[in-house]
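Limitations
The structure tokens in this dataset are predictions for the assembled complex, not deposited experimental models. Users should treat interface geometry with appropriate caution, especially where small molecules or nucleic acid strands are included. An illustrative entry is reproduced here so readers can see what is and is not provided.
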Amino acid sequence: KNQVEQSPQSLIILEGKNCTLQCNYTVSPFSNLRWYKQDTGRGPVSLTIMTFSENTKSNGRYTATLDADTKQSSLHITASQLSDSASYICVVRGGGFKTIFGAGTRLFVKA
Amino acid sequence: DTEVTQTPKHLVMGMTNKKSLKCEQHMGHRAMYWYKQKAKKPPELMFVYSYEKLSINESVPSRFSPECPNSSLLNLHLHALQPEDSALYLCASSQGFLAGDNWDEQYFGPGTRLTVT
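Predicted assembly:
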């Protein structure tokens, strides 16, 4: 069964600290994996895309990793800011038209 | 212009009403999507249009009726909804529907917050 599981469900960190969010998937075949950031009441915004051959990709303070062998991805946020408070959704594109969304990790950054 | 716009932002409707949600993009994207999102849950795909043709209908009840009048517009017609249909309805678009690089990157609109009373 094609699934995308994210952990933790929620996370509270202090401003300025780093954090890492996890995404495990069982989608096969695999096309790509994206991390989206969704602010409350808004649409998701794409942060990074990872294809099979890519291990690491950065977008500012966001760094995504992909291990295609273990089917795991992570999103590392460096020097967190209050504006990083949001839900982070891992989305895996499989074969054909299949797109599987994870349940998301809700991140709260406190001053 | 990398924006997907949705109107209205908020909608309250009774179970006997007929209303429509509107989505618009001017990025030349040929794939457009409707999603339903309940609180604290990920978006659930409802419909996909590719080149103005309905490509995917995820077994959505007929009280939701999509329409793609042209490549820039996507509508969702609502009729006889139930209270459990209350949710955030998101529209998205992408260059195409094929996987690979940024071709299938979806740009989301801000959503319409629908309340059915």
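Some entries come with short summary sentences. For this one: The mean pLDDT of chain A is 93.
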